[in-house]
Amino acid sequence: MFRTKRSGLVRRLWRSRAPVEGDGDADTGTRVGGNAGCCLGKPGASKPNPGTEAELKALTYSILKKIKEKQLEVLLQAVESRGGARTPCLLLPGKADARLGQHSYPLPLLLYKVFRWPDLRHSSELKRLSCCESYGKINPELVCCNPHHMSRLCELESPPPPYSRYPTDFLKPPDSLALQERGEQPHWCVVAYWEEKTRVGRLYSVQEPSLDIFYDLPQGTGFCLGQLSSDNKSQLVQMVRAKIGYGIQLSREPDGVWVYNRSCYPIFIKSATLDNPDSRTLLVHKVFPGFSIKAFDFEKAGSLQRPNDHEFSQQPRTGFTVQISFVKGWGQCYTRQFISSCPCWLEVIFNNR
């Protein structure tokens, strides 16, 4: 009975592996490619990897059969829910290698390739999510191999021009002790949800280091857009709203604010720290499903003046704003010139007190 259950888990995991580009079963919502335009953070479209399907299957089976049954159940829950379920870390030896074709891969990297990104080549392409036990640890003996505790890094096609220094003071970390003495609950940002030109719901104040913003997420806690009451009857708005799904994860980390796209469709981001703030128009960056981007850089923010960008300069906000649109882009590469024409979008307004 024990062997039967273990074998069943292994078979279900193999059936749940990530589709290779070109497979008939591939999810068109997560497919990438086409004209990149102004979308600077894009994944590689190269065909995966060395090693035949039979070799990969044999190697995967041999690895999974060495993993404890409880760990297999955790991995299966993470993979079948596509990261929607809250699953614990899957701690396995990080230095164990596996050979596929002519290439040798660390065990964690191989599991990430099999269950999320078949085109993954190197661990430098990955970013560990802050919810993971292995986050911030350097070369631990046991490494989390849960593929949904990882994200792919968005890489810009070219670095932004050098930043000029200005005597401005953006996003200083709040004095947490002083706030507690005054009885105040510190928040590092507030989030507003918009449908076209209408704000829907209240401003959502964020105190925790990370926030899930979603429409429909199993076991989800955070800012649920699906619970907001909207009077917008536009078919496009309703279609995009339904595609938000697992949404995004917003996290404040030591080097800045990161956005992780948990949905099955691209998101689009505009932020002054991603571009040259002296330019007349900031670029809109496309972030594919499963990818993370540093949407706001603390170090760069300390040296910025208010950007010249028309949309940003029209906002009577204190602090700084990052704009995020679900599914539909805007700007010079799109028919929509302003984010207020996008069906469903967010403002993330930082607290610079």
- Morphology call: globular
Largest sheet, in brief, is:
7 strands, mixed
Number of strands: 17
Mean pLDDT: 80
Roughly what fraction of the amino acids lie in strands? Answer: 15-25%
Please trace the helix and strand order, writing H or E for each element.
HHHEEEHEEEHEEEEHEEEEEHHEE
Share of helix, binned: 10-25%
Structural class: alpha+beta
Low-pLDDT residue spans: 24-41, 158-175
Q: Gap between N and C termini, in Å?
A: 61 Å
Strand order within the widest beta sheet: 4-6-15-12-11-9-10
Per DSSP, the total helix count is 8
Rg is 21 Å
Pfam family, one: MH1
Protein name: Mothers against decapentaplegic homolog
Main location: cytoplasm
Organism: Cyprinus carpio carpio
Compose a concise summary of this entry:
This protein has 353 residues and is α+β, with helices and mostly antiparallel strands. The protein contains 8 helices and 17 strands.
Task: Please characterize this protein's 3D structure.
With 353 residues, the protein is α+β, with helices and mostly antiparallel strands. Strand 7 and strand 8 form a beta hairpin. It is built from 8 helices and 17 strands. It has helices at 2-15, 53-64, 69-80, 107-115, 176-181, 235-243, 298-301, 310-313; strands at residues 91-93, 97-100, 103-106, 126-128, 142-144, 150-153, 189-195, 198-206, 210-214, 222-224, 248-253, 256-261, 267-270, 285-287, 291-297, 321-326, 345-350. The strands form 4 sheets. A 7-stranded mixed beta sheet has the order 4-6-15-12-11-9-10. Helix 1 (2-15) packs parallel to helix 3 (69-80). The relative contact order is 0.14. One of its GO terms (cellular component) is cytoplasm. Residues 188-353 form the MH2 domain.
